[in-house]
Amino acid sequence: MPRRSLTRAVPIVAVVFGVGASLLAAQGAPAKNPLEGDPAAIKAGMGIFRARCADCHGVDARGVRGPDISRVWAEGRTDSGLFQTLRTGVPNTEMPSVGARTSDVEVWQILAYVRTLAAPGPADPPRGNAENGERVFRANCASCHRVNGKGGRLGPDLSRIGAARARDAIVNRIVGAAEGSRPGYEPVTVTPPDGQPIHGVKKNEDLFSVQIMDSRERIQGYEKDKMKAVQDDKKSAMPPFGSDRLSQSDLDDVVRYLQGLRGFDPAVKQ
Ligand code: HEC
Ligand code: HEC
Question: If you average pLDDT over residues 25-31, what whole number do you get?
Fold first, then answer.
């Protein structure tokens, strides 16, 4: 691959001629990670990654709350594109920018470390049939979830779920094996002094009041000291879809459909 050796050569040439700094300043970030394979950089990057990225992407980079990032190179992302993604974050998603206080060197250290976790090839060939998955979704899920402007609001909008989550995380959530709920969707039950308990998801809470969306999508605030009880529930407001409700092939199909939902295209992808 001649292109690759060319980009690899640029930083070396720059260093040899002692014009590294001015070249970088003129061109922005180098095309290729100047610290790739550097043991000290990898070690430093591991520390930063574990402290600041692993919560969302997993210590193995295979994804937890955020997507699998071990395959970004196999899928064709470039070092300079990834550098940019870390610098700017992905606007309007949970992916934060590393922030101005993180130096360029640190960003390259992080990427040098993630590179050591990289999977050799693209993900397993996708299985399932997205068309049938969409039907399964309409029948079982759309009452609570919106996709591209259509559907219910009790659960989160899933228009970009395919970019935002690893496959395993999506599967675990559907079958009820995931823990915790996304902020804004935590299950809660409010019991008024003279009425039936109201189940819903928590939109807001402070010391004195709680605001919930109930299963009919009505949002209402309650003063806590006027209620008989306000209780955080253990069970998600999303019912688990075990094999009794969803066959393995319907599960594969609906997951395939969700993996294809990538919503808007944030301009930072390059
Ligand atoms: C709060 C959770 C969270 C944290 C912390 C976080 N990320 Fe992300 N990251 C995400 C999400 C969600 C996405 C997917 C955004 C989208 O495109 O919808 C993402 C996307 C990415 C992508 C782009 C993947 C692609 O396919 O293009 C990279 C690379 C990445 N993150 C690296 C990192 C690194 C490195 C760190 C630590 C410095 C980090 N992230 C911290 C949640 C997080
Ligand atoms: C009764 C409403 C309801 C139904 C029906 C429902 N969900 Fe959910 N779903 C929720 C709620 C509420 C959440 C957020 C709380 C949580 O994550 O536990 C959620 C979360 C999710 C998430 C995680 C989103 C994220 O940001 O990580 C996925 C994926 C998902 N649902 C998929 C599905 C699929 C697929 C179906 C149908 C097979 C379905 N849901 C049916 C209410 C529902």
Answer: 64
